[in-house]
Every structure is written in C-alpha cells, then in structure tokens.
Amino acid sequence: MKLGKKYDVKTVADGFAINSLIPRGLAEIATEKSMKRLELVKAQDVTEKKIREDLLLKNLNDLNTVVIEIKEKVNEKGHLFAGIHKPELIAEIKKQTRLDMDEEHIVLEKPIKEVGDHMIDVKVGDKSAQFKVTVSAA
Fold first, then answer.
1. pLDDT tens digit string along 8-67?
2. Cα 68 to Cα 106: distance, rounded to the nearest angstrom
3. Can you give the pLDDT at residue 57?
4. Residues 80, 135: contact at Cβ < 8 Å?
5. Cα dihedral angle (30, 32, 35, 36), rounded to 10 degrees?
6. DSSP single-letter state for residue 20
7. Residue-wise pLDDT tens digits, 97-113
8. What is the chain's percent helix, strand, coil content, to nearest 5?
9. Cβ distance 9 to 42 under 8 Å?
10. 135 pairs with which residues across the strands?
11. Which of 89, 85, 80 minimizes the C-alpha distance to 115?
C-alpha cells in the first residue's frame, strides 16, 4: 500500500483513515495544530539530515580505508541464509566506525548473499567513496 511518503498530506476515505491508518499510527487528522507540528518536525528532520550529510562528507575520504567485518550463518556452499541489506550495513558501520548515514547514501543493487569481500559504494551529493565488507561464516 503506497499512499504517500512521510510528511505528505493526503485525502483518503473516512473509513480507511478511521479503521486502518489512524489506529496503526500511520496518519492523523489534519487539524491546524497538527499541521503546525508537522511543519516543525519536518524542518527539524531536514536540519538533522543535512548535519549528518555534512559530517559524512567530511569523513568520506576516511571511508575508503574502512573494512567492515560481518559474521553470518552460511550453508556448506558459502551462501548466506539471509542476505545482508542496507539497514544491516548501516548498523554495522555505525557500530564499527561511529559514522551515521542514511540508506540513500549506500549504493547496493542487491543484498549480499555470499561469503567473501565485497566493495560497497557510498554516494553523498556528487562525491563518492567505497568501503570493503568482509563476510565470514559464524
């Protein structure tokens, strides 16, 4: 179900909003008060994102020398039972290097599903870097 993105204001059927979106915390009624709060939260989010990007840009050259080590369960052929996706990579980068980045910065066309070394591209604006991910059997 794709109705909108975070911070979008959309018109939906009353029943859908009351029975599904609002109870699950995915939406709220667009009152004047909630719209002001939305704008404030959106501005804070944009500011925090910009700060994280600036910090990542400053540390982008250091990222070229980083090697992230991940241990996962594998089968006898060296294939992972569960692929490594962007959220797992971001968590490991943050844990091992203390660098904070968003999923949009990592260029990963498909999940990592094999043991070995993998070069991962990171793109921030018009600058890019690479880091190595070493996947081994747990």
1. 999 999 999 999 999 999 999 999 999 999 999 999 999 998 888 888 888 888 888 889
2. 14
3. 83
4. yes
5. -160
6. I
7. 888 888 888 999 999 99
8. 40, 30, 35
9. no
10. 70, 116
11. 80
One-letter amino acid for residue 52 of the chain = R
Query: Who's near 48: CB < 8 A, 6+ residues apart?
Result: none
pLDDT of residue 107: 92
DSSP assignment letter at 115: S
- φ, ψ at 82 (rounded to 5°): -125, 130
Kindly tell me the sign of the dihedral angle through the C-alpha atoms of 53, 91, 65, 62: positive
Q: Is the separation of the CB atoms in 70 and 134 below 8 Å? A: yes
Of 112, 132, 134, the closest CA to residue 66 belongs to: 132
Residue 61: predicted pLDDT:
80
Rounded to two decimals, what is the model's pTM?
A: 0.67
Phi/psi of residue 43, nearest 5 degrees: -65, -40
Residue 117 tokens, joined? 């070394």
Better-predicted residue by pLDDT, 63 or 134: 134
The CA–CA distances, whole Å, from 99 to 30, 45, 111 equal 36, 18, 21
CA quadruple 112, 114, 118, 123: dihedral, nearest 10 = -10
pLDDT at 1: 60
- Which amino acid is residue 9, in one-letter code? V
